[in-house]
Amino acid sequence: MTLRCVITHRCLCPQLLNTLPTRTHGPAAALNINRLLSPPIARNFSTPSGSTTPEETPTQETETSTDKIENQYSGFRIRKVPIAKPDGDRRAARERYAGSTPMVFRSPELTGIDKVADLGRRSMLPGVFKAAEELVRGGYVPDTKLYAVLIEACGNFQGCLLQPLAFRLFEEMKARGLQVNSEIYHSLLKLLAKSPDYLKRSEVLSEMKQGWYEVTEGGWEDVIAGYILGGQLEMALEILDRRRREGRTLHRNIYKDVITGLCKVGEVDEALRLLRELEAEISWVTPPALAYTLLAAATNQLHLEATLFCWRMIIDKEMFNPDDGLCLSTLNVAARHGQPQLASDVFRVLWNRSFKYEEHHYAALLESYAVAGDLTAALSILPLMRQAGVPPVENTAQPITKRLCDDASIQEGLNLLKQMKKSGKDVDLAAIHALIAAHIVRRDIDAAFEVYKELPEFDLRPDINTFNLLLKIAAKEARKDFAVNLVGEMKEMRIEPDVETYEHLFYVSLAQDNYEDAFIYLEELKATWKHVRPSLYKALATKCYLAGDNNRYHIAVRELRAMGIRPAGFIRKLREAHSKPSN
């Protein structure tokens, strides 16, 4: 494409005119280029929009100071603008300014290449190309300066829509034998900062290197911005680190964009490294939005180091008040990595805003103490929850159970509870359940029952969850005698069984050679709760299959089909596992 094509709009119009706002009403709906190029009409801003223009005051024929200025600088046009109040009292306004009339000076009208350059800097498109057309028609020979102005105008346009046009101009000027200067190269880099086209960017940098043109600080910022936009964060980091090693500084927005890009792709380690290096510099001040972005990314990945760094920076420097979601994410990190101090800080922030805690908030705080090995603090949270009206649920004390199993010292937990009781502290039933659950993990039914018998010492009474835990281990160990004794104690304490109770009794009966009682509990389940888990019928079918009880095996399979389950896969796996012919 030649410059003549550009200035006659045969290439620009399809791309540019469709992107610029046009009038959609009236007879002249197309873009009026002459109107864009015409000088703006001066407006008297002192006149209310709803009122008429004040009548002009006849001027004296004598030469005033304004006339002298006009005579001295003929390129200027000076217009006197009277200052009037909304009520039209000009006299008060003149007295306020000591009799002098403020004047508005309009800069001289630009002509020639200066006019084209001015329009290009102000992104007046397509006016800049129309001005270039008029300039060439007037006899101006296209030179490097004109191409530089037009390429710069392409770079000033929003986005990278004019990138093809800019590079066609770039190739055309080289074909004319014109020398490409540093200004043009940097205009192209500025344009490519808004484009993911890394190949063109590499070509420009390569030509600059061959021509011994040095990339300016602003040019490198454009290069890094383009790599970030294209998702090539490694290239951006490489340039950024090299510039830092050379002692060069970049705009803070570049660092912000790099760290934000790293957070988006989950590179929290690199983002943390860069931010730490920047924090060590005196001139750097971390923007609150950047700290929020990194903390959110760190908590999303349960990254402890980055979470601690950002949280302390936000709280110590009082950047902002973390929202509830960010606090809860930070609390989860504290729980996972055993950081009770961090969890306490989060609780304090939430407490200051009268936040209503729920079970999972306390559970996270408890887990942070349990993972850190502070079982005393973890156990003491359970009665606090009940006092706050948020009773522990079945899984609340699970971190305590896991810690007791890992430490291979369940007796230590029981001793801690006795010390708490002796010192006057409350002991919650959930803590006893945690000890029983630890014995269940180790399949030590006798030790679990010994913990159960310690309940009166803590002034506690077992509930249905206590018996379900003990029945669970009885089912695992096939201890029907133990289960029967527990059912007797439940009746004495008038504790009503639930679905889980009947399921454990079903499994413990099914584990016996004589499994007739399993059918009784299964029927009671169906009669009382209407719904039975498919896993029970699968367990029954397996037992009947192995015992050769084909009749009831087929009954169990039909029950699975009646529940909408296709048992073909289950049957195939059952036969493959036990290598028996089909019945």
CATH architecture of the domain at 110-249: Alpha Horseshoe
End-to-end separation: 83 Å
Tally of contiguous helical segments: 32
Q: Helix amount, in percent?
A: 55-70%
User: Low-confidence stretches at least 5 residues in length (pLDDT < 50)?
Assistant: 1-81
Characterize the largest beta sheet: strand count, sense, and whether it forms a barrel: 2 strands, antiparallel
Oligomer state equals: single chain
CATH topology description of the domain at 110-249: Serine Threonine Protein Phosphatase 5, Tetratricopeptide repeat
Instruction: Give the strand line-up of the largest sheet.
Output: 1-2
Query: What value does the average pLDDT take?
Result: 81
Look at the structure and name the CATH superfamily of the domain at 110-249.
Tetratricopeptide repeat domain
Region (Disordered): 41-68
Biased composition (Low complexity): 46-63
Domain Pentatricopeptide repeat-containing protein-mitochondrial: 324-454
Keywords: Repeat
Protein architecture, described:
The protein contains 32 helices and 2 strands. It has about 575 residues and is mainly alpha-helical. Among the domains are: about 110-250, Serine Threonine Protein Phosphatase 5, Tetratricopeptide repeat (Alpha Horseshoe), CATH 1.25.40.10; about 250-355, Tetratricopeptide repeat domain (Serine Threonine Protein Phosphatase 5, Tetratricopeptide repeat, Alpha Horseshoe), CATH 1.25.40.10. A two-stranded antiparallel sheet has the order 1-2. Helix 8 (about 145-155) runs antiparallel to helix 9 (about 165-175), helix 9 (about 165-175) packs antiparallel against helix 10 and helix 26 runs parallel beside helix 28 (about 500-510). The longest helix has 14 residues, at about 325-335. The model is unreliable at about 1-80 (pLDDT under 50).
